[in-house]
Each structure stands twice: as C-alpha cells, then as structure tokens.
Amino acid sequence: MDKYQNILTKYWGYTKFRPLQHDIIRSVGEGNDTLALMPTGGGKSITFQVPALAKEGICIVVTPLIALMKDQVENLVERGIKAVAIYSGLTKHEIDIALENCVHDPNLKFLYCSPERLGTELFRTRVRQMNVNLLAIDESHCISQWGYDFRPSYIKITEVRELIPDVPVLAVTATATLDVVDDIQDRLGFKEKNVFRKSFERKNIVYLLREVEDKKKYLLKIIDSISGTGIVYVRNRKGTKEIAILLREYGISADYYHAGLSNAMRGQKQSDWKKGKTRIVVSTNAFGMGIDKANVRFVVHMDLPDTLEAYFQEAGRGGRDEKQAFAVLLYHASDKRKLERRIESSFPPVEDIKRVYEALGNYFQLPVGAGKNVSFDFNMVQFVKNYKFNVMVVFNSLKLLQQSGYLQFSEEVDNPSKVMFAIGRDYLYKYQVRNANEDKFIKLLLRSYSGMFTEYRPISEDAPAKKANTTRQIIYNFLVKLSRDKIINYIPQKNVPQIYYLEDRLESKTIIFTGDKYLNRKERYADRINSVIEYATHQKCRSQQLLAYFGETNASRCGVCDVCTKRNELGLSKYEFDLVLDEIKKVIQKNPIELEKLVDKVKQPDEKVLKVVQWLLDNEKIARNEKMQLVWG
C-alpha cells in the first residue's frame, strides 16, 4: 500500500479509495492546483484530509458552512487528529489563541475557517508564520459570480494565496456548471487547468416527479410503498412540525428538524435518525450538511426548490450505499406561480435594502466608519418588531448585502460554553491554597477536561454537575466567580444569529447596488428558477435533464424515471423510439402535416409511428393547428 492508502486505513478504516479519490490525492500530493467535482456523498473531505496528513504542516480548509465545519473538526478529533475551527461568533481572544496554536503546535493538522476571516489582519499575519501544506476550498462554487451561492468573501482566498504562493490549492464542489468550473480555476489563479470530474450520474437513484392535488396524502402513499428510512424536505420551519405530527398520527416514526432548534435538540434528532430510532426526518434545507447515512431509501421534496443545484444535492442524500433509492418531487400547477413570485420577493427594492442596512447600524449602536471585522448577536424577531419591517424583506436584504460584500449573515451559530485558564499552573496552585471552596471545583474541572491551559475547550455545565451531584446553576456560579477572579476565561453558551461586518459601516446613501450586484444577479436567479420549472414541466428523462444542467449533455436515458417509464410502456426500445422520433422530427419541422401523410413519409412500421406520435401529443412536444395538422412544439 502507498502512504495515502496507509493513512486512509489507519484513520478511517477503509481498505481502498472510492473512484477518483486516489487520483485527486496524488495530484494534490505532487503540488498541483486541483479542482475536484464530486457529487454529494462522493467523499470530498477525504481528498484534502489524506494528503494533508501525509505531509508536515497544517492544512487550511475554507468553508462557509459553520455546522459542517464543526462536524468535521469533531470527527477528526475523534480519530485522534488535532483540528480547530474559527468562524463568526467566536471572541477575538478565542480566534487569537486558535491561530497562535496553529503557528506553534506541530501536531495541529487542520485549521477550518469561514471565508470572511481570511481578510482580517490577524489572520493574514498569522498565516505567514504557519507551515501550511495545503489550501483546501470547500464549496468552491461560492467564489464564482456565475455560481448559485456566490460569496464575495471567497475572493479573499486569492489574497491568501499570495501570502503562501508555493502551497497547492484543492478546490472541491458537488455542484458546478461548465461556466463555474472555468471561473473557479481563473479566480483561484490555477497555474494550469486541472479538473478531476466524477460523473454526476447516480444510477441507483430513481428520479420521479408526481403531479398531485393532495401532497400530504401522496406522501403517506410513498412512505407506505417504500420501505426504509427517508428525508422529507419542506420550505418552512412551521411545515416541518406539521408534517411530522401528521406522519405520527398515521403510526409512522417521524421527527422534524430546522435551524431554529437548539444544538442539543438538533444533535439528538440527528442521532435518533442515524441510529434508526426515527424513520423519517421532515426538515428544511438545514438538514443534511455533514450527515452521511448510507441507507436512505427515499428523499421527498414537498415544494419546488430554488435551484437545481440545491435539488441535486438534497436528492443525492439518498442511496449512498449504492442501493436503489427514490428522489420524489411533488408538484402542483400552483407551485410554478409560487416559484415565479419568489423572484420578486427575493430581490426587495434597493431603497428597502438600504433602509435595512441603516436600521442595522442603529440597532447595534454602531457609528459610521466603524465595525469592520466585528461580529454582533442578532435577534431577528426583535429587530423586525423595533423597526416595523417585513421579516422576508429583512432576510432577503441581508442575503443581498452579504452577496455584495458588506456583511456576513449566519442564521444560527450554536456555540457551546468554553473555558480556558487565564493563568499558569503555579499561580493556579497558589489560588487553590487560598480558596478552599474553589479548589474542589477547579480539581473537578481539571479532571473533566484537558488542554485548558493552551486553548479554549468546549464544556457542558451539566457534565461536572452530574459528577459532583449538584445543580447546573451552582456550576455556572463557580465558573462566573473564577472568571471574575481572572482565573479562567469563561464564555457561556449562546445560540443566536450573527451579523459580521466585512466593511466599516457606511452611510446608507453610499451603499451601491450596480447592475452586476443587483439586476444581473436577479436575472441569474430567474434563470435558475426557470431551470427548476423546466425540470418539473418538461417530459424528458429526469436524470438527463439534471446531468445536462451540469454539462453532461451526452448522457443516456435512465430508463427508470417517470418520463422514461411512460416511454417504456409504448413497448419500444430506446433505439426504436429514437429512430422513429428523429424521422418524425425531420418531417414536422419542415412544414405542418396531416397524420396520415406523416405516417406515409416516415419509413418505419405504422404501429410504431402512431405510438410515438401519441406520446409526443400527450407530452406536448407536438400539437395540432386549426387545420388539424401536426406542428412541432
């Protein structure tokens, strides 16, 4: 086995790599800038974690997903690999300590950071001092203005590259169109084009679209007809609970999940589902990041998604064990109008966006010219109430301000309580001798947690309370007392959204939304909405449509989706169907024609021609004009 295989086996227990993983790792190991396109569940994290472990030094991983970042750090630590993360919501001292350890601790192998942190002087100073062996860019489509989730803070990556010019870059993504693939490499300054592309085709997933009147009733039918565990995606938080309750009323083990739940509650719900205690999770799009459950047999979308990128990722959480799974999109004619209305609601008038920006500064009592690289706790409910805004206007304004590089908005950052000793062991001993009551608690703390003299350690006030047979409040009081005595730095748990200013607060009149920042972005969003509507309304192989969207234009029909199944019922092979279709198309596209004349002109058996014509009429590929002639489209 080579060194990469040894690392894979030692830390992950796998005997071999998945297809393409080894090729990507070798490319990175040879020092090449590399772009890896791999579908959801393809094992992207392995492609930067393994080569980073094979070299001395630390790997910097940039990702916008705080939940995923924290999940990966926890997984690495569980495997005995030292890793740390910095993101919005941490104090300046926490970040300073973490970066300092990245410079001086040779055993620290991974630094995960959110993109907005890259532009800070603190980060730039420290990264020059680090022994960086790899720069990994997760969700790399975020650097492209053509991408569906563009984030200006990702552009800071190019500045970081200038500080570590000899360090190779690995960019990974599960969703990138052809334009985005080229744009990623250009913006990251690849020395030469170098793309590893695993086909996005998932042969074991059956894509189905069902046009139904009663979606809830049809959902029950799906769950009854497909055995195994599943995910049901809905658009809003209220809907998750409503549908979970409905399923329980029918005796189905179900739970709901969304970003507004506490970290402990989300963790418990995830755990119950992964262990099989819960069969169905009903969730917003908050569920799935970092969740790798192999035996998901179906993924149902109750609503049309905003983008095919999002749909492909979410549907791809089924069938990771390579066995058959179903991705079902429930559709009603009214969904098309709802999705089209979202184009306008997602882009509030520019004046409304400026009003939200101005109110934010006042809410935080932040003067003009201040605030850059500062993070604030943000209570959306209180803000909307104070300034009498519509909540969706605020939410979408924040997204646009983020996309334009003024601030970063994190919906919920669930940070556990953290403790770090502010003094050395010698002074701590003297303090313990003088303070008998605190001495017992300090010993309990030291027995319960390690590493608190060199870094902030996450703690649970409940754990030491249980050990000492006391209450959480008493433990909290001790922590506060030690903090006041400057023995520890104590940061209590919080779970609130964060606003992080990427630039100093400006006067609202100087906030600029150019054509590129507003109108062009609105047009691109409309294009993505239209792609979703096209997917839902066109009678073409579902798998082919998805693959074509990502640039795989020569894919074969899957043969198992709802569209292909209808074709299969004609009793014609794909070859026969396509042969007849090509001839019909050539004739009809020239001039309108009567059915009888068409049958005479097409040099195929009449029965086959009539079957294909009927299918084309049923699926609105051809129509009859006022003279009852057949016309294309």
Explain what you see.
By secondary structure, the protein is of the alpha/beta class. It has five domains: 3-197, 3-Layer(aba) Sandwich (Rossmann fold); 205-335, 3-Layer(aba) Sandwich (Rossmann fold); 348-412 and 496-517, Winged helix-like DNA-binding domain superfamily/Winged helix DNA-binding domain (Arc Repressor Mutant, subunit A, Orthogonal Bundle), CATH 1.10.10.10; 417-492; 570-632, Arc Repressor Mutant, subunit A (Orthogonal Bundle). It is 45% helix and 17% strand. The strands form five sheets. The chain has a seven-stranded parallel beta sheet, with helices on both faces. Strand 12, helix 12 (308-315) and strand 13 form a beta-alpha-beta unit. Helix 5 runs parallel beside helix 6, helix 13 packs antiparallel against helix 21 and helix 17 (425-434) crosses helix 18. It is elongated, with a radius of gyration of 28 Å. The N and C termini lie far apart (58 Å). The relative contact order is 0.09. The mean pLDDT is 90.
